[in-house]
Structure formats: structure tokens, C-alpha cells
Amino acid sequence: MTVKTIRDGYFDPEKIALSGQAFRIKVIDEDHTELIAGGRYLQIARTAPDTFAFSCTEKEFENIWKDFFDLDTDYKAIEDSILPEDSYLKDAACYGRGIRILRQDIFETIISYIISQRRSIPSITTCVNRISRIAGDRIDPPSLKAPFVSPSEEEYYSFPSASQILSHSDELDDAGLGYRLPYVLQACRDFQSGKLTEDLLKNADDDTLFKLLTDMYGVGIKVANCAMLFAFHRTGRFPVDVWIQRIQDRFYGGKFDCTPYPETAGIMQQFMFFYERTR
DNA sequence: GTCCAGGATCGGG
DNA sequence: CCCGATCATGGA
Questions:
Q1: What phi and psi values does residue A254 have, to the nearest 5 degrees?
Q2: Which of A80, A107, A218, A221 sits 20 to 30 Å CA-CA off A47?
Q3: pLDDT at A2 (0 to 100)
Q4: pTM for this model (two decimals)
Q5: Pick from A89, A10, A83, A22: which is nearest to A50 by CA?
Q6: Average pLDDT value over all residues in chain A
Q7: Pick from A109, A37, A92, A98: nearest CA to A67
Q8: Residue A112 CA to nucleotide B10 C1', Å?
Q9: What is the DSSP string of chain A?
Q10: What does the pLDDT read at residue A122?
Q11: Average pLDDT, integer, range A160-166
């Protein structure tokens, strides 16, 4: 177990779980959040207002989770950089204080956002969990003592690799993917064949990465931007979905101007998205 | 039952 | 280049 103090309220696992950027983070109760990422189970317990316990070793925290939760980035400075005349964004950032942009698994994020098109977040979560159960590896949750609570499920499943999904493709018909199933299978073939690799994508600059992603079958502008933001941490990307479009129409004359935030527009986007959906 | 969801593709103008 | 029709399903 690792105990971390993160001051000033700029880390809030519950808000991150409800922010809609990840589909396998779950709020257990007001002080406990759990997630599956990288084939591991993690639980975070709030032990004081700005103090958190992570159900992992210090080494695992340093090697994996610190980076996953983007804990080295100064989110106060990002909030302070908001143009003073943009009162809507200021309110949204204050309301969403504690949200951070995760560095999620690349393949999982691409597939998850392919599935996400024209579906609600609860429905996406259901689909992602079904695929994991069908083709992923079983993960037994740890037995945890205070300050943690019992994991909410008895068994968990990692998000499967491309070859794992392909080897269970006959079982995916009743996973509820609908018309997106061919998209998912083609993406799996692209990765299994080596046409795409995580290293290739990771090392590409923004424009190249965007083209590589949008060239994939079933990946358009919005899904590509979500993958870039939530898996590759390209925080200047600004995904526009129906919620963001509504905000743009209502408060920004149809289009939000990203130019003041070349490296952080995606973080601002996440504040707006969370503000609009949960208040 | 109705309506909408973190959209993308395709064909036609 | 832009536009509209269409896509399959879950959750509210």
C-alpha cells in the first residue's frame, strides 16, 4: 500500500471516474474508487481531504500509476491559464477541479472509442466489459484491508489484445457491438498483422498520428481525437461530440477557439464535458 | 413504446 | 466539398 498526499484538490478519483474519459473506472463509495488498467486492479481510498492510499506497492505506483494519473503535471497552472473573460470555462474548470487526463492503454482506448460512436457512456461500459469477459485474462481482485474496501466484483478481466479478440471473434456476435463489429475486427487485424504498432503510433507527431488513426476503418475525426487525448496524452486535441457541440453553440457562437490553449485545449474540453453532463 | 447516445461511412449532388 | 440517409443496440 502506498499513501500519497496530493494537495489543493487537484486530484479527485471520483471526478475522474465520472468524467467519461475511461470506461473501466468505477466509484465504489464516496471515498473509494477502483479500476482495471494495464491488466491490473487498483483501488484508491481517500483517507483525508487531500490524502489518498493506493492499493499497490511504492514501486508500482512510481512505475505505473503516477504516470497513468498524470501526477507530474501542474493542473493549477492549467486552470490559471484560462482567459479571464471566459467565465463559462472558468466555472467549468473550478467545478471539475481534480480531473486529470489519464494515459490509458493504447489499443484498449482505440477500440473503446470505436465502440463509443453513437452510444451512451453506460452502454459503452457494458460493451467494453463484455469484450473483456469474452476474450480477456481473468484478474483476481486482491484481498484488501482498511483503508480499502472489498472490490465490488468477484472477478475482473483485462482488456484483451488484438489476437485475443480475433481468437474469440465467433463469440463477439452477441457482445452488442452492432454495426461496429467489423470496425473492431479490422482494427484487430491491423494490429495483429503489424501494420500498426503501439510504438509506431506513439512515436508519430500529432499530424501523422491523426492521419494513421483516421485512416483506420471506423475511426473518424472525433474517435481519433479521443484516442490521441486519452491514450497518447496529446492534450492539445479537442474532441467534439454532441455534448461539446451543444456547448459551443450555446456559449461560443458555434465554435470554441482553441488557439489560446495549444497544449491544453483537450483538458479544457474535459472540464466542459464534465460540467455540462453532471451539474 | 419513444428517444438519444463521447459518429462514421457511403452515395449523390 | 458538403449533405443526408443509414447503421445496431442499450439505457433512460
A1: 100, -20
A2: A80
A3: 83
A4: 0.97
A5: A10
A6: 96
A7: A37
A8: 23
A9: -EEEE-GGG---HHHHHHSSS-SSEEEEETTEEEEEETTEEEEEEEEETTEEEESS-HHHIIIIIHHHTTTTS-HHHHHHTS-TT-HHHHHHHHHTBTB------HHHHHHHHHHHTTS-HHHHHHHHHHHHHHHS-EEPPPP--TTS---SSS-EEPPPPHHHHHHTGGGGGGTT-GGGHHHHHHHHHHHHTTSS-HHHHHTS-HHHHHHHHHTSTT--HHHHHHHHHHTS--TT-----HHHHHHHHHHSTT----TT-TTTHHHHHHHHHHHHHH-
A10: 98
A11: 98
One-letter amino acid at A162 equals A
Distance A242 CA to B5 C1' (A): 9
Q: What are the pLDDT digits (tens) for A45-56?
A: 999 999 999 999
Q: Which of residues 109-138 of A touch strand C (CB under 7 A)?
A: 118-120, 122-123, 126
Which residues in 124-183 of chain A line strand B, with CB less than 7 A from it? 124, 179
The whole-number average pLDDT for the span A156-161 is 98
User: How far is the C-alpha of A32 from the C-alpha of A12, rounded, in Å?
Assistant: 11
Name A36's bridge partners: A41
> Could you tell me the distance in Å between the CA of residue A150 and the C1' of nucleotide C7?
41
Per-residue pLDDT tens digits for A133-150: 999 999 999 999 999 999
pLDDT in tens, A95-137: 999 999 999 999 999 999 999 999 999 999 999 999 999 999 9
- What is the per-residue pLDDT for A4? 80
